[in-house]
# Entry
Amino acid sequence: MKNFLAGIGMSLLPREWWHGWQPDSTVHYRWASMLSGALQFLAFLSLSASLYFQFLGERRSLYGGGSGGQGVMAFLFATLEYFIYPHHLALGYLTVEGAGRFLGAFAMGDLLPSLPLWLVARFQRRLQASAAEAALGLRVPDTIERVEGLPYELRISTCRPKERWKDRLLTIAFEDRFYEVFREERGQPPRPFVYLLRQAPGHKVIRGHHYYNPNETLRGDDDGN
# Structure
């Protein structure tokens, strides 16, 4: 029960902010997301309605509110003015978002975080990526050493990790030959990432190809795409 109640709040957050928290089950988390969306909708709907009717009462006299057509015009002008203010629009958005999160979890099983929090998390990821990029130093071309008499043929030193090369079923094409990663090592700056490549056997199961270029790191193709 405690984890279910925590899921109501956690469903508002992007997954990278969970910090190790996990739902008891997909079904429980779906129900927690539905309840979270419903509570968000009702809370902001009540707040928006309260502020709207308060604002409407204040403006009716200003616009000469009365009965008939004059009263209708006063109502329309007051409503338009209400939605000019950013905080009123924000409350309206959060109301609609709550309904959308509830319907998404109920109808499709989509577990959607709150958009403002998702945008903050996205901005945070960009800052972290920029900090990590700066920590690795300037981008320089890879260096390639050809080796003989060892279990591998190429020693490639690079300034950025090649994430896709962690897939052992990947085949790397270079100078009309096909290689696979034999081992990874640590090197010295400015190329601290070292990949030892050996010729791929003809019977190897191939999941994908990568046509390697020593200058690909300069273009930001660090993952081998």
About this structure: Strands lie at 143-146, 154-158, 170-174, 177-186, 193-199, 208-211. The helical segments are 2-10, 26-62, 68-82, 86-108, 115-135.
